[in-house]
Structure formats: structure tokens, C-alpha cells
Design brief:
Largest sheet: 4 strands, antiparallel
Helix content: under 10%
Number of strands: 15
Mean pLDDT: 75
Strand content: 15-25%
Order of helices and strands: EEEEEEEEHEHEEEHEEE
Shape: globular
Radius of gyration: 22 Å
Structural class: mainly beta
Low-confidence stretches: 1-33, 69-97, 124-136
Distance between the termini: 46 Å
Strand order of the largest sheet: 1-14-13-10
Number of helices: 3
Length: 302
């Protein structure tokens, strides 16, 4: 087991899709009729005379024509830097449905462990929703990070609550303390929210030298390899307070809003095997760290 320290690393997923000829697709040009093979890709016409790609969604219909950076290539359409039809690395089966670089944050594009990760679109303003006059996303000005709960052991406790549920309650208390208008909506920050908040500079006020527990539920790029999360990297969901059977991932704030990530590339936990831990580097016991609290994911108004 090794510990990797990453400073703002990113993984750009690249998928080249090979389109089939339009004549054999069995659809009428608008992706709404005919049968097809799930995952099949066919060429389609784009504004200006170029070609795009349609993907068979469920065996009976095609999705909308995706143009983006697609260029005609003599009857075939090749997508450059797309995240179309890429399975998510977190095992949920979700797919990225847009093109990297189109200015819209599509599903999976801000998941650094997902092959569909697209730094160019992560945090982008989606002008397809929100204020139709200005084209601005109604969520653009909403902060991600709210507050933190300082000096918490790896076993989170609040009243009769322990573990992640206790962390949720502690975050609501912290949100109340900073005058949040809806403290009951505030939650423990997930890894992806930490990444996005850091990109927006929201940690600039956190004093240098502060560390915080990292609640990671999605893959992370560790040494170029998407590595799965697990309770063995979350101090068994923050109920464990010794070092011999689980690790605790965390982040360090050196100052100025920068964030250093300390990941575990082996988050296995079965309650028995002690060989998956790394005492002295990713300790659960003996450490007191902050809990980061965030607003829930922002949903743009239609």
C-alpha cells in the first residue's frame, strides 16, 4: 500500500467513437424511430453541413445528434475529446452525455475518477438553464463550502449520534453558527465538492496548517490510476478510533486556498485483515482534524 500526495491533479478521459453509415441505422433522422443496438453510434447531420454522432439509447431509439467538435471525414464521424457513452468509474452506470469543452457541465465531467472527467467544463456556466435573459446559471453564485467543524477525532460524535450521521449534525450546528439561512440543508462535504470548492477559491480563509478528514465516495486519480473509495479509507465511515484496521484520508490546507490531498490506494475493509492499513501516514487514531461542511449540490432552475 502506498500513499500518494496529489496537488490539483486531473484526469482527462478520451473516447474515440467510430460512427456507422447513416443508411443502416434504421432511424428517420431525428433519433425518434426505428430499432437499433444499444450503444450503436451512427452519423447525423449538423448545422453548417458537418456530421455528428447519435448513440442508440435503449435498443429502440437514438439520442440527439451530438455535434461539438465533430468534423466530417468522408462518410464517418469521429469525436475528438468527447465523454459520450463512457461508463462512470464509480460503478453507478451513469454516463457522460455531452462533449468535453462545450461549456456545459455534463454528468461525470467533474468526477476526477471518471473517464469522462473534463476540467474545461467542470464548474462551467450552463447557459441552457437559468436566466433566459442573461444566459447565466442560477447556481453560479452559490458557494459550495459553508463552514468547518474544528478538531474532531476519527470517531465522529454528536449527542447520541456517531459516525457520518454525527458529522451531518455537527455540520448543521456549524452552519447555524455562521448564520446560514437553511442549516438543515448543509452536509459533510464529499471529495468532489472539495475539489470544486478549491477550484473556486473558497478555502482561502482557512488558516495554513489546517487538516480535514476527506469523505470520499467516488474514485480518485492516484498516480494515474482511478482508485475506488471504501470504508477502509474513511475510518469505517468515521466510527473507528484506532490505527490497526482502517485508514483515514484527509486534506491539508497550506494557505491561500490551496489544497493537498492524501489518498489511500487500498481502501479495503473486512473488519479482520490488518494488512490494508498504513499507521503513521493515514492514521485514524491519534488524529484531530476538521470536518468540512458544504451546501447540497446546486440544481439550476429551469
Amino acid at each position: 500500500m502506498q500513499l500518494y500526495r496529489l496537488l490539483g491533479g486531473s484526469l482527462l478521459g478520451l473516447l474515440g467513437g467510430i460512427a456507422l453509415a447513416c443508411g443502416g441505422s434504421g432511424e428517420d433522422g431525428d433519433g425518434s424511430a426505428g430499432s437499433c443496438v444499444a450503444g450503436q453510434q451512427v452519423a447525423c447531420a449538423c448545422p453548417g453541413g458537418g456530421s455528428g454522432v447519435q448513440v442508440c439509447l435503449d435498443g429502440s431509439s437514438f439520442g440527439p445528434c451530438q455535434c461539438g467538435d465533430v468534423e466530417p471525414t468522408g462518410g464517418e464521424a469521429t469525436e475528438s475529446a468527447t465523454d459520450t457513452d463512457v461508463d462512470s468509474a464509480d460503478g453507478t452506470g451513469t454516463t457522460g452525455g455531452g462533449l468535453c469543452g462545450n461549456g456545459v457541465e455534463d454528468p461525470g465531467e467533474c468526477d476526477m475518477g471518471n473517464p469522462a472527467f473534463c476540467a474545461a467544463d467542470c464548474g462551467a456556466v450552463d447557459d441552457t438553464a437559468g436566466d433566459s435573459t442573461t444566459g447565466e446559471d442560477s447556481c453560479a453564485s452559490e458557494p459550495i463550502y459553508v463552514a468547518n467543524v474544528p478538531s474532531v477525532a476519527s470517531r465522529w460524535e454528536s449527542g447520541a449520534l456517531i459516525g457520518f450521521a454525527a458529522g451531518q449534525e455537527l455540520c448543521r450546528q456549524a452552519a447555524t453558527g455562521v448564520g446560514h439561512p437553511d442549516p438543515m440543508s448543509v452536509t459533510v462535504c464529499d471529495y468532489q465538492q472539495v475539489v470544486m470548492a478549491a477550484a473556486k477559491g473558497e478555502f482561502a480563509a482557512i488558516p495554513g496548517g489546517t487538516t480535514a478528514w476527506l469523505h470520499r465516495t467516488t474514485n480518485a486519480d492516484i498516480g494515474g490510476v482511478p482508485t475506488a473509495p471504501g470504508t477502509g479509507g474513511r475510518c469505517v465511515d468515521w466510527t473507528y478510533q484506532t490505527n490497526h484496521i482502517s485508514d483515514g484520508e484527509y486534506v491539508d490546507f497550506p494557505g491561500g486556498g490551496a489544497v493537498n490531498y492524501f489518498f489511500d490506494n487500498d481502501t479495503f475493509y473486512d473488519g479482520v485483515d490488518t494488512t490494508h492499513t498504513q499507521p503513521g501516514l493515514l492514521e485514524c487514531g491519534t488524529q484531530m482534524r476538521a470536518i468540512l461542511c458544504c451546501n447540497p449540490p446546486c440544481m439550476p432552475e429551469g
